[in-house]
Amino acid sequence: MSSPVLRRLPAVLVIDDELRSQEALRRTLEEDFEVFCASGAVEGMEILEMEQSTAGIRVILCDQRMPGTTGVQFLKEVRQRWPDIVRIILSGYTDAEDIISGVNEAGIWQYLLKPWQPEQLLLTLQRAAEVWRLQQENQRLSLDLRTAEPVLRRRVDSKQDKARKVFGLAALVRGPGSPLDPVCDLVGRIAPYDLSVMVTGESGTGKEMIARAIHYESNRADKPFITENCGAVPDTLLESELFGYKRGAFTGAVDDRIGLFQQADGGTLFLDEIGETSPAFQVKLLRALQEGEFRPLGSNKSVSVDVRVIAATNRDLEEDVRTGRFREDLYYRLATIPVHVPPLRHRPMDLPLLAVRILEQSCAALGKRVTGFSAEVLAVFAAYAWPGNVRELQNEILRMVALADGETLGMDVLSPRLRQGPAVDACQATQSWTDGLSGNLRERMEQLELRVLQAAMQRHHGNKSRAARELGLSRVGLRAKLARYGLADEGQGDQ
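RE: above sequence
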């Protein structure tokens, strides 16, 4: 057996039959990755077979047009043999239809167009390597939870507390008067009960974070939390992913595979984009939910599991039920408790806190030190409508951190999309801040002042000196106002 290779950099395999393009890709990536290059599918497969027996390739960047095969066809075979490798396709506009039709079967994580930009390419590969790392970490954590020795079980309570802080309600960032407040209240109330939950909302609003919060606030927090994106996998593959299969069940099934339902036994299974599944698959899923058991493909024995199912969709499933696209019985089985996540444009008071949290995460992921945003950038953030919601905000800040030279993110690294993008309706943004105010003008102004003080203290993690500077107050003046509203004990004193 080969000894593991200790690598300083993550390994990426570049496959391109044009040597000049191959060399350009190598030069762009070689400072951040250990780059292996191949001119075609056969050579690429040889490198994979050799490297996967040691430390392993983490990311494949593959050209669509290659002699003898296409990138999509090659990546389909890679997915079958090494499903953990993150797969990226690189091609021109003319191949878009062929690639899109094969995205699900090949499990392509990203599709990049030629001519590529070095910054965009490098950032995409960095994110892909991070996805690989998180996948491995999730698998290790799931395995640890299932196979831990009794002596380690004594640490479960402390681990649960830590997990609850990272993934529970405390992880749902929001400002005073946020539309997320009633959502968090509902999550806290339903989490302890084994009821099916349907999380709805636009793409990128954080539906998976809501599902995680439900899991980690429940009695199942020490058990696995398993996710599956139903919209990214074709029906035939989705069935084997969820229910597993026995060796010989179909061509390529060389070993038994435990499905996600069985992996999540005792814990929670999160089915994202449930509205994209076909009626035929919905029948099989409904049966598994009703009976609490299923048969792996190729098996004549049923497997019983104890799983809480949380589903999510950005579709109007009630309308899909009316039109017959989604089964009514499955909808009511999944939507015992509906939870709707509001879009980011309806949460202006959350934006500054979210931006700071995402900035910290982005700096940690990229190993860079950036301390904050310029006033101009924050103004653009506040005026932008964020059609991609929190996911778009995450991508924007990650991109800005990657391109930043200084410790403050300024307009020079802001994407043109934001400078020219749709602005939030000013009346709508103001409405969110003034919702719930009551009484005469003076009383309403006091309530609004309280919200501003709370938001400033949260933004600066309780540091009174910084909050006072932002609000144009002295430390004494700020302390007096905090005391007036019963907030005197919040924060970190005179820091």
